[in-house]
Amino acid sequence: MQYFKSNTVLYLNGQFQKATDTTADVYGQSLHYGYAVFEGIRAYNTHNGTRIFKAKEHFERLKRSAELVHIPFPWDVNNLVEQTYQLLKLNKLKNAYIRPLIYCAPNMSLIGGTKPSILICAWEWDAYLGHEQLKVCISNYERPNPKSTPIEAKLSGNYVNSILATTEAKSKGFDEALLLDMNQNVAEGPGANIFMEKNGKLITPPLGNILPGITRATIIELCNVLDIEVTERHLSVDELKQADSAFFCGTASEIAGIASVDDYKFPIRWVDTLGATLQRTYKNLVLEKQNYEVII
Ligand code: PMP
Fold first, then answer.
1. What CATH number was assigned to the domain covering residues 134-286?
2. Can you say how many angstroms the Cα of residue 89 is from the centroid of all Cα atoms in its chain?
3. Which of 31, 108, 155, 224 is most buried, judged by most C-beta within 10 A?
4. Strands 245-250, 254-261: pairing kind
5. Helices (DSSP H) in 122-267: which residue ranges?
C-alpha cells in the first residue's frame, strides 16, 4: 500500500508541504509512548462535488480526544475542516480517507500536556475490511478498561490493543477480531463498532467501554428514519451467538457484514439482513442521494 507519492502534499501546523519533505522528531512522547490522538474521516465524490462526511463531528471528536488526555488543542474546528478541503484539492483527491494526527513535541518525560503539532494527510483507501462477509473470532484480548486510558478518546496508544487483536485473529485464519470489555460483554472490533440483529430488531453495546463511533451514531439515526428498532445495551457472547445477523460499522470499514463468530454462522443471508439495508442507506447518505429506503 502506497500512502503517498513524490508530489503528495500534507498539512502540518498551518502549512501545506510535500510529504517527502516532512520529518518528525524521534524524541517525542507520541512515538515512544503512543501519546497522540487521531481521527479517521472519509470524503466521497458526490453529485454535489467532493464532500467530507461528518467533517465537523470528526474534528470535534479529535478535540475531545486531545482534551481527555490533556494534549492542548489550540485550533479552530471549522478552520481545520476548510484546510482539509484544501488538502483534498491540492492532492486532486475526490474519494479519500483522511487522517488527522495530533502529536507532541520532544519530551521523554511522562508528564503530559506538551506542545502539540497537527498533521493531516489523505489517501485513497477502499473499504478497510473488504467487501465480503467476515469470519470473526472472539479475541483473547479485552478492550482497555476505561479506568486505564480513556476509551472514548481516539488515542494512538489504545491501538496497540487493536493491532494485537487483529494480528491474533489473522494468525488463526479469521478475518477480524471482536473484543469483549472488562466485564466480558461484547464491546467492539479493533477499528469498528458492532450491531447484532435479532427478530427484526438491532442491538448494539452502549457507550462507556467503546469508542463512540460516528458511524454507529449515524446508523442509529438511520434506524429512526427507517423505523428499525435499535437498543443500546450490554450483550453477552451467548446472545450474539444466537443472533440472526451482525455487522461492523466504522468510517474506514463503512458497514461490513459478519458471516460468523468463532464457529457460529449467522443464519440469515446478508442480502436479507437489516445490515444490508443499512449498508445501502448509508451509501446513499454519504453520497448525498436522497432516496432513503422505507421498510413496509
Ligand atoms: N471503534 C474503534 C476502536 C475504532 O477505531 C473505530 C474507528 N474510528 C470505530 C469504533 C468506529 O468509529 P467511527 O465510526 O467514528 O469511524
1. 3.20.10.10
2. 23
3. 155
4. antiparallel
5. 159-171, 214-226, 237-240
Q: What is the pLDDT of residue 129?
A: 87
Residue 107 grid coordinates: 519530551
Q: How far is the CA of 296 from the centre of ligand 1 (A)?
A: 31
What angle separates helix 214-226 from helix 55-68, to the nearest 10 degrees?
140
The domain segmentation of the chain, as residue ranges, is 9-123, 134-286
User: Which position among 94, 147, 154, 201 bears the catalytic label?
Assistant: 154
* Gap from CA of 168 to ligand 1 centroid (Å): 19
Binding site membership of 197 for ligand 1 (Cβ less than 6 Å) = no
**Would you tell me how many other CB atoms lie within 10 Å of the CB of residue 112?**
14
Q: Which residue has the cell 447484532?
A: 196
End-to-end CA distance of the chain: 43
The pLDDT confidence band at residue 292, using thresholds 50, 70 and 90, is low
Give CA–CA dist 259/50, Å, rounded.
33
- Sole residue written with cell 488527522: 100
Q: Which CATH number does 9-123 carry?
A: 3.30.470.10
For residue 234, CA distances in Å to 132, 195, 203 come to: 27, 11, 9
**256: burial class by Cβ within 10 Å (0-12, 13-18, 19+)?**
buried
Beta bridge partners of 198: 201
For this structure, is 154 an active site residue?
yes
Between 57-71, 121-135, 237-251, the lowest mean confidence (pLDDT) is in 121-135
